[in-house]
UniProtKB/TrEMBL annotation:
Keywords: Ligase. Residues 415-490 form the AMP-binding enzyme C-terminal domain. It comes from the Bacteria. InterPro entries: AMP-bd_C, AMP-bd_C_sf, AMP-binding_CS, AMP-dep_synth/lig_dom, ATP-dep_AMP-bd_enzyme. This is AMP-binding protein. Pathway: Siderophore biosynthesis. The lineage of its organism: Bacteria, Pseudomonadati, Pseudomonadota, Alphaproteobacteria, Hyphomicrobiales. SUPFAM superfamilies: Acetyl-CoA synthetase-like. Residues 2-364 form the AMP-dependent synthetase/ligase domain. One of its GO terms (molecular function) is acid-thiol ligase activity.
Amino acid sequence: MLRRQAQAQPDIVAVVDGDRRWTYGELNRRADAHAAGFLALGLLPGDRVVVQFGNVAEFFGVVFGLFRAGLIPVYALAAHRLAEVAHLARRSGAAAYMAGDRYAGFDYRPLAQALRAEVPTLRHVVMAGDAGVFTPLDACMGEGGLPGDPDPSAVAFLQISGGSTGLPKLIPRTHDDYIYSFRASNGICGVTEKTVYLVALPVAHNFPMSSPGHMGTLYAGGRVVLAPAPSPEVAFPLIAREKVTLTGLVPPLALLWMQAAPGTGHDLSSLEVLQVGGAKFTPEAAKRVRPALGCQLQQVFGMAEGLVNYTRLDDPDDTVIGTQGRPISDDDEVLVVDDLGRPVPEGTPGHLLARGPYTIRAYHDDPSANARSFTADGFYRTGDIVRRLPGGYLEVQGRAGDHINRAGEKISAEEVEDHLIAHPGIFDAAMVSIPDPVLGERSCAFVIPRQAPLKASEVKMFMRQRGIAEFKVPDQVVFVDAFETTAAGKVSRKELRARLRTQFLASN
Ligand code: J2J
């Protein structure tokens, strides 16, 4: 897809990162050079490579270079820390780690150092910027000697799941399923060579990557503008300068933008469509998009595992405000079922199951997750509770599982509990979601201390020292003496979390 655009319009700008403007020709040359450079390091087609960049142009040179070399990117978010990156590297058996030296105030070099010590399969660390002891990205530039185009039905990369149980799972997406999803999304979202897409969310997240996101925009020959932060202070001047036509946000950011827009001196009139997704956007907030920002709202309900739903640009207002859209494709099969797996009537809430042309049938190398997450006939159990409305539109009601959707960042209660219980002063812990007016949900950890009294600040400090992403550090820590058990003395973590949450909400 990149070669085609580079031939058709080599001098058109593809990627804007601050003062840097890479044309399609330039991006294409870098992809070729990196592909040859990566293979010259001794990496072999099929090797997995953990890629961790912020919203910077290098991300594109690196991932297209990897695709061309037949290497398989594993997408880490810039916010991930050693615990998550080491997990992704181990799970994928990664041969290399590629990152930028610094981003958003964080230095990735010590992380890379620790990662190399922890993950024996890792043979190379490639760094953009000041590489220190590692291989500089600029040195990974070669010539010729590339394998032919990859098999379209082969795995192109491993995307990561929101992780509803334990650590993130790896999602194998193929070239053809993924390109299908953003090519079809382009049609639904009106993306053409005239589109200017602002990447406000993290570049490696599936929403800004493919719905239709930066990949859809590059496919169509449009322009991708990278925002180093999603705040109005950073994004609004970029919208005005680059005449951005389309962007996607999570609900809390949309609220922030709507609040900041009326007083802003920046011209936002180029913005045609604001997509909101990743977590539930309430109808009250949805109603305010056009008055505040002067553009059309599109709701997007998607998942890295596949299925993506959009409200359509010509839908009536009440559909756009009150639903999370309908699937991309007529070939997307959507089932809404009760706890026993029986289909429920239209309008009744139930578990959403999905199967279709771009929805995975299995996670990468994870038999136990696969047994839980897929039905025998290949439907993915999304874990979402939805209502199906006339016309196939879906309204998301919430989650069946115990993950916390904090401003679109998915946090697994189980994963955080494991870290909490590692504290020598903590006997047991259970983390739950609490409704939050800005974040949608925030995290609250219930902690039983062993003996000596603990402080919430100590617990949070400990969590940071464990090397986990900041968004997973509990927003609130509540100390309790014990978790009450049922008469049977047995209680599943799931029931326990549900009870704690109910008690907390009743007492606040
Ligand atoms: C309620 N919950 C939503 C919405 C996602 C496009 C858009 C989003 C994602 C994404 C994505 C929601 N209302 N509008 O990959 O391509 C929750 C659901 C879902 C989970 C998936 C895309 N949009 N969600 O958010 O893999 O619970 O993908 O199952 O990060 O986010 O999370 P993730």
